[in-house]
Amino acid sequence: MEASFMVALFLSLFFHCTGLVPSPVEARPDSLLFLLIAIIFLHKLKMKYGPILPETITGAILEVPVLCLALQVALLVLWGPMFYILQWLVDSASRNLRYCLNEQLSLMISDMQKFFGCKEDCVTPSVLSFIAEEETKMLKRDIRKWKKTHKK
């Protein structure tokens, strides 16, 4: 792949991951994979139909922002709606199938839902243990405080 495509890919990944370009879809592995596939598709189009800009250093420099803009537009126009449609399909399938399937298959569906769901839906065991520890500390503090006030 040409250097201008690689630079455009890295800049688009940087913009997407840092949030410099507003996007309704957060930076996740699936959106990063979409950007990689999109730049490969744009390169294939250039190989098939020829370059739009002249094959000079100035043309290569101008090609980078054009490719970055094309990738960000593709991310907003193509991946955004596709992501929400996939998320809705997985959520509805998991809700409907969870009741009629055995436990092992239900666990597989919840894993699939975690992959396509948002980050807030996925509570990890480490987060749960941290919450339990903090809750225990708070209860112990409250008991000590209650004992001090009612000891007199």
Core attributes:
152 residues, mainly alpha, 5 helices
Radius of gyration: 25 Å
The number of distinct structural domains comes to 2
Strand proportion, as a percent range, falls in under 5%
Helical segment count = 5
- Give the overall average pLDDT: 80
Question: Could you describe the largest sheet, including whether it forms a barrel?
Answer: none
Structural class: mainly alpha
Oligomer: single chain
What is the overall shape?
A: elongated
Order of helical and strand elements: HHHHH
* First and last CA, distance: 79 Å
The residue fraction in helices comes out at over 70%
Model regions low in confidence, pLDDT < 50 over at least 5 residues: none
Number of strands: 0
Secondary structure blueprint with pairings:
Elements: H1 3-18, H2 29-49, H3 57-98, H4 103-116, H5 125-150
Description of the molecule:
Helix 3 runs antiparallel to helix 4 (103-116). The chain has 152 residues and is mainly alpha-helical. The protein starts with a helix and ends with a helix. The protein has helices at 3-18, 29-49, 57-98, 103-116, 125-150. The protein has two domains: 3-117, no CATH class; 122-152. It contains five helices and no strands. Keywords: Membrane, Signal, Transmembrane, Transmembrane helix. Residues 1-27 form the signal peptide. The chain crosses the membrane at residues 29-45, 66-90.
